[in-house]
Amino acid sequence: MLSNANDRVVPLNYPIFILKTRHLTRFMNIIWTSLKMALTEFRSNKLRTFLSLLGVTFGIFCIISVLAMISSMKTAVQTDINSLGSNAVIIDKWQWGNDNDFPWWKYEKRPEIKFEEVAELRNRVPIIDNITFWTQDNASVEYDNNILSGVNYYGVGEDYAKIEHFSIGEGRYLQQADFDYGVNDVILGNNIAEKLFFKVERAIGKTVRLKDGKPAIVIGVIQKQGQSIIDIWAFDDCIIVPFKFMRQMIRDDDAQPKIIVEGRQNVSIPALKEELTGAMRSIKKLSPGQEDDYALNDIQTLSHQTDNIFSNLNKAGWAIAALSLIVGMFGVANIMFVTVRERTGQIGLKKALGAKKSTILSEFLLESSFLCIIGGMIGLLGVFILAGIFSSLWSFKVFVPMDIIGLAIGICLFVGIIAGIIPAVTAANLDPVVAIRATT
Asked: Does residue 440 register a pLDDT over 90?
């Protein structure tokens, strides 16, 4: 013999699925009842409930807004970092990713990267797809009476555009003859062209004056890139010239020289760095006991740095949210204690009619959880409004991923259960006779 949900004795051959259906129906009724009670509590005592849920609302707002902002920033930063080339290694005398204790004086004494090393590497490392020498300076650009200061100059080799994959909006890019002879041709960033000529199409063919009055002919304008969160290359606000022409304005050793290497599609970064290490040590004639006097930096190193930054921001957001959620937990517990007191007679009547302790316990725990979800939804609404505002102001889109929304609901359920457990147990343990008399 078995007992069904109403404690009636049923035969052993009683269909099991009917029992399961009744249990499911009973559970759904408990959920529906608890939801109605939570909404009734919110409608009948709006100010009291809202103030009590304020901690949950603020906690959810803090943690979800922080997580959404960090997720959006991380996506934007990774996009910018990947613009460097996911399969690229940058050879420099400075090592990326060092902490505050790194021996800067040691790196300062290293020799600068040399242009001649480009040809050597191309001959010694067969897995290289593209390789370019790169130098940088910061000076002014002048046309007629318009002078722009603080403009980034990039002196590049012929493979630079193949590695960075930017597009030319007006005119053309540098040709092989421009690189071979170091002609005074220049590519302008979109913002530079607009500021000097007001319309980018007017820039083509004009002669501008660069550092030390050097004349240069504008042959192309980079297609507008738009703002980005870290703007690594800042193509909108730079000029690109052949490396040999750059040499006429600044010495290599004063222009932060680097070599950018891109491996073939099927070559991993570790494999490329291993080949480059052997080649560079050979080129520089370093003995087995000597340390490297160069650095091989890759995009993964930069990505790990940003991951550490975002991890610390996440921890700060969780710390703020935890404090708010603890405050909110006490607020919800206070509501549930008041609710138990107000419904003492109803609880006694239910128990007198046969309601089990588990039923009373479930109803109050679910009601507490629903109240927290209501508070959490208000917090989420605030996050969506904030995301819309920031998306219109910032250079990247702020979005709220679905997994973060699911996390918010999970946090609300957890807080609701913890906050409601003591009031729910109190209600479930009420003596029906005493509870009914308490209201008379």
From this structure: no
